[in-house]
């Protein structure tokens, strides 16, 4: 089934640990995005990539890094997790033109 | 900068009731406007969109009209069903911003029998 696959589905992580959230899409979309969803704040953009080999900062990039080595994969790394990074993380993709975003099912991350 | 303001939830309705979820926005230029829906345990799905003033987006009985004069994009449905229970997000993408969306905080809808 075409779409976006995120892994893991959920994770409990000790503060200070490093963690990479995985995202893979099979729709050959140019652009990919990482959002975090927090109650009362909606979804906020962390990082994005308009095409393979390029990345950009979103609204809340601090503490996160991304890479886009190829079209399909867009991993999000927390170098040293902190409790404020407890959230649900969504990966999304789209064609670069004005087309809708396709979302994965999310990763629920708890930092203790 | 860009911002989206939605009415707070949760909104609780009886089946077959009329639904309105208010959404207003602030943006430069001529944004495109969207409503996304999130069912429990899932990611967001596009419900409808409008790309210019006075456009009406519609899907699955839901409608929203792009009102530039009031900077609004209110979501409506004439008769809700239990299966419409979800969280609804209003969003915009600004001119020249690619597809980077600015989301509202979301409104939870609960429909009861």
Task: Provide keyphrases for this structure.
heterodimer, A: 112 residues, mainly beta, seven-stranded mixed sheet, globular, B: 113 residues, six-stranded mixed sheet, 12 strands
Describe it for me?
The complex is a heterodimer of chains A (112) and B (113). Chain A has 112 residues and is an all-beta fold. Chain A has strands spanning 4-7, 10-13, 19-25, 31-38, 42-49, 56-57, 64-66, 76-78, 87-94, 102-103, 107-111. In chain A, strand 9 (87-94) and strand 10 (102-103) form a beta hairpin. Chain A is globular and about 40 Å long. By secondary structure, chain B is mostly beta strands. Chain B has no helices and 12 strands. In chain B, strands 2, 5, 6, 10, 11 and 12 form a 6-stranded mixed sheet that branches. In chain B, strands 3-9-8-7 form a 4-stranded antiparallel sheet, with no helix packed on it. A two-stranded antiparallel ribbon of chain B has the order 1-4. Chain B starts with a strand and ends with a strand. The mean pLDDT of chain B is 92. Chain A binds chain B through residues 4, 31, 33, 35, 40-45, 48, 50, 58, 90, 92, 94-96, 98-101, 103-106, and chain B through 4, 32, 34, 36, 41-46, 49, 51, 89, 93, 98-106.
The assigned structural class of chain A equals mainly beta
The total of helices of chain A stands at 0
Amount of helix of chain B = under 10%
- Gap between N and C termini of chain A, in Å? 35 Å
Shape of chain B: globular
Task: Give the strand tally of chain A.
Answer: 11
Unreliable stretches of chain B (pLDDT < 50, length at least 5) are none
Mean pLDDT of chain B: 92
Counting DSSP E segments of at least 2 residues, the number of strands of chain B comes to 12
Largest sheet composition of chain B: 6 strands, mixed
In DSSP terms (H or I, runs of 4 or more residues), the helix count of chain B works out at 0
State the helicity of chain A in percent bands: under 10%
Instruction: Give the rounded overall mean pLDDT of chain A.
Output: 93
Shape of chain A: globular
* Portion in strands of chain A: over 45%
């Amino acid at each position: 089934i075409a779409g976006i696959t995120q892994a893991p589905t959920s994770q409990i992580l000790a503060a200070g640990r490093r963690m990479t959230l995985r995202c893979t899409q099979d729709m050959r979309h140019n652009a990919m995005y990482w959002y975090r969803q927090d109650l009362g704040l909606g979804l906020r953009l962390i990082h994005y990539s308009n095409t393979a080999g390029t990345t950009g900062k979103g609204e809340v990039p601090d503490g996160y890094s991304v890479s886009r080595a190829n079209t399909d994969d867009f991993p999000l790394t927390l170098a040293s997790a902190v409790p404020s990074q407890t959230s649900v993380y969504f990966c999304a993709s789209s064609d670069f033109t004005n087309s809708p975003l396709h979302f994965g099912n999310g990763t629920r991350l708890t930092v203790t | 900068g860009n911002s989206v303001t939605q009415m707070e939830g949760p909104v609780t309705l009886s089946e077959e009731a009329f639904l309105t979820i208010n959404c207003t926005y602030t943006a430069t230029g001529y944004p495109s406007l969207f409503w996304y829906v999130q069912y429990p345990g899932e990611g967001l799905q596009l419900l409808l969109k409008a790309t210019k003033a006075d456009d009406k987006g519609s899907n699955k009985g839901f409608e929203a009209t792009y009102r530039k004069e009031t900077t609004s994009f209110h979501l409506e449905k004439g008769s809700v069903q239990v299966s419409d229970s979800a969280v609804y997000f209003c969003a915009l993408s600004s001119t020249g911003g690619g597809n980077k969306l600015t989301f509202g905080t979301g409104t939870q809808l609960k429909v009861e029998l």
